[in-house]
Amino acid sequence: MGDLRRYFGIGLPPGGMPFTGSRFEYLAGGGDRPEIADRVTAEDLVAVGTLSVTVPASVALDILEGRLGTRLSGLLQAIPRDIDMVDADALVVADGSPADQAWHLLRDQPDVGWVIAGKLLARKRPRLVPDYDRVVRCAVGRPPSFWLALHAALREDDAALHRQLLKLRQVAGVPKTVSALRVCDAAVWMNHRAVGHACP
Questions:
Q1: In the prediction, which pLDDT does 196 show?
Q2: CA atoms within 13 Å, Cβ hemisphere of 102
Q3: Lowest-confidence region among 87-96, 116-125, 184-193
Q4: 60: Cα separation from own chain's centroid
């Protein structure tokens, strides 16, 4: 709980600073608000930067003004924005789904890769798509599909893990606007980073 409070800047002493990633999900009102949910904006690109990664300028411009943005928007329109991963059918995050296609489209852009692709999608669908990066991968391993593995874990035992994440959010005093997936990511990231694991 202490790690989560530190991450989101809850109860910090005067002058204390939360992690910049604490603003990722809801910077400028969030990437999934209705008016911009199906297109990537400059605000989304700044939000991704709070997680210490940068979308290459050429790719960012193509997203904002070019064909890549049009293709990505078409896929985003097919990805539900108002559902938690725990409540979604597995097909929504399965291989070949619009979410998976959007991830591959982004991943395959020059100098983007799987980490940045995942963060962009997590910004656009924070309740549905987790932020899976090298630190989290180091902590939880490399299942064939992290999305499907997490989906199954969240639904197991009558959604016990999902309920535990919501309880942790409440006890830590994290705002309800922060998704269960973001609570999970921040908790795993902070814990694994704190114990000093070297993550390739």
A1: 54
A2: 32
A3: 184-193
A4: 18
**Cα–Cα distance measured from residue 21 to residue 184, given in angstroms and rounded to the nearest whole number:** 13
- Helix/strand/coil (H/E/C) assignment for every residue in 3-41: HHHHHHCCCCCCCCCCCHHHHCCCHHHCCCCCCCCCCCC
- Cβ neighbours of residue 35 under 8 Å, at least 6 residues apart? none
* pLDDT tens-digit readout, 132-174: 999 999 988 889 999 999 999 999 999 999 999 999 999 999 9
Note the pLDDT tens digit of each residue in 33-64.
999 999 999 999 999 999 999 999 999 999 99
Q: Could you give the angle at the alpha carbon of 79 between the alpha carbons of 119 and 158, nearest 5°?
A: 85
**Residue 17 has which token pair?**
């600073």
pLDDT cut 70: percent of the chain above it:
96
Rounded Cα gap, residues 31 and 146, in angstroms: 22
Give this prediction's pTM: 0.93
Closest CA to 183 of 141, 158, 150: 150
Give the total residue count for the chain: 200
- The residues, ordered by sequence, that sit 6+ positions from 76 with a Cβ below 8 Å of its Cβ are 37, 38, 39, 40, 98, 102, 124, 125
Q: How many CB atoms lie within 10 A of CB 72?
A: 22
